[in-house]
Amino acid sequence: MKRILTVAMTVGLAVTVAAGTANAKREKFGQDDRHKIAKRVKFEPSTEKIKWKMVMPWSKGLLFYDVAVHFADTVRLISAGRLDIKPFSAGELVPAMQSFDAVSKGSAQVGHDWPGYWKGKNEAFVAFASVPFGLDAEGYNIWLQEKGGTKMMQEIYGQFGLFALPGGQLGQEMGLFSNKRATKMEDFKGMRLRTPGWYMDIMNNLGASVSPLPGGEVYLALERGVIDAAEFSSPAINYPMGFDEITKYAIQPGVHQPGIQCALFFNQEAYDKLPEDLKWIVTIAAAETQAWSYNWINSLNAEAINNFSKSVEIVKMDKETLIEFRKVAKTYLDSVKAKHPDVKKVLDSQEAFIEEYSVWRDARSGATPWPYETYISGRITE
C-alpha cells in the first residue's frame, strides 16, 4: 500500500511539474500600458484656473446634449473647478453645423458631435459615427480602446487642427417609424423616408426616395405625409419627439446604426497648453463619459421601447431581407473605400476586428439573459 501511494505521489508530482513547465512558456496574457506611467508620476498638480467654451450641434432637449454636459461636469468635479468647461447648445454661441469650424479656428476650445456630420470634410468621419451593419456598442468600445481606433480618430480630426477622444457610446438606434408596414425588400421600393449618411445612399440604391431632413422637421413631414418613414435615433432619444403619435409601425432592427458613437474634439493649441494633470483629467473624464453614456441610455431605452410598444406595432424585417440589406451595404461600402483612402484604412481595421472577434462571439452565444419562459421556449440567442 505504501509503495502504491509513493508511486502515485511521484506521478502526481511529475504531472504538476510538467504542467508548470508548460505554463511557464507563456508570458502574462494582456497588460495595462498605463500602469508604467502611473507608477512614477513626474508632474505636480497645477494651480492655474482655466475656462473653456464647449459648442455642439445639440439642442437642450436632446439627450446628446446631456452627454456633452456630463463630460463638462466630470472635468469640473475631478479638477475641483480648475478646468471649467461651459457648454453652449446649438445656436447659443454658433449655429449647430458650425461647431466643428468654431473649435478648429479657436473660437471655442472643445466640441461634442456625432462625427458623421463632418463627412463633407472627410468621408472617413462617418466610420467613427456609425456604419450600416458595422460595429455595435461593444465593438466600438473595444476597437477604439484596444485596436487603434482612437489613434485613427485622432489622425482624421488632426487634419483640421483638432485633438479628439471618444465621448459617448449610445448603443443601437431604432429602425423606421412608418405608416407603411415593411418587412421585405420590395416593401421599401418607392418609400419616401428620412435618413442621413451612408444609409441614405444605400436606401436610394434599393429604390427608396430618401431625404436627410433635420431632426426638428421630421415630425411635421411624417404628419403631413411628405415622407412615409423616418429614423432618428435610439428609443430614449426618439420618445420625446413623439413619432409614435403619428405612425402605426416601428420597423426593426436599426441596421443603419448598430452603435451610435460620439466624439469630443478639442482645439489642438488649447489642448497642448493644458497642464499635464488636466490633460489626464480630460482623458479620464472622456473615458468615463463613454462608459456611463451607454449604461444610462440603455436603461432609458428599455423604458422607452416599452412605452412605444403600447402605441405602435413593432415589426421585424425578415431574415432574407436583412441578408439582402447586408449585401447591398457591402457593395456600397466597398465603393466608398475604393474612392477614399482614409475610409478604406478605417473600415479595413474595423472589419479585421469584426473577423477576429467573431470566434468569441460565436463561442459565447446561447447565454442571452432572456426571461425564463422566453429562454425555455427555445430562444437562446439575441
What descriptive keywords fit this protein?
single chain; 382 residues; alpha/beta; D-Maltodextrin-Binding Protein, domain 2; 2 domains; six-stranded mixed β-sheet; five-stranded mixed β-sheet; 11 strands; 48% helix
Task: Characterise the protein shown here.
- By secondary structure, the chain is α/β, with parallel strands linked by helices.
- It has two domains: 46-171 and 259-299, D-Maltodextrin-Binding Protein, domain 2 (3-Layer(aba) Sandwich); 173-256 and 314-339, Periplasmic binding protein-like II (D-Maltodextrin-Binding Protein, domain 2).
- It has 14 helices and eleven strands.
- Strands 7-6-8-5-9-11 form a six-stranded mixed β-sheet, covered by helices on one side.
- α7 packs across α12.
- The longest helix is centred in the C-terminal third of the chain and has 33 residues, at 276-308.
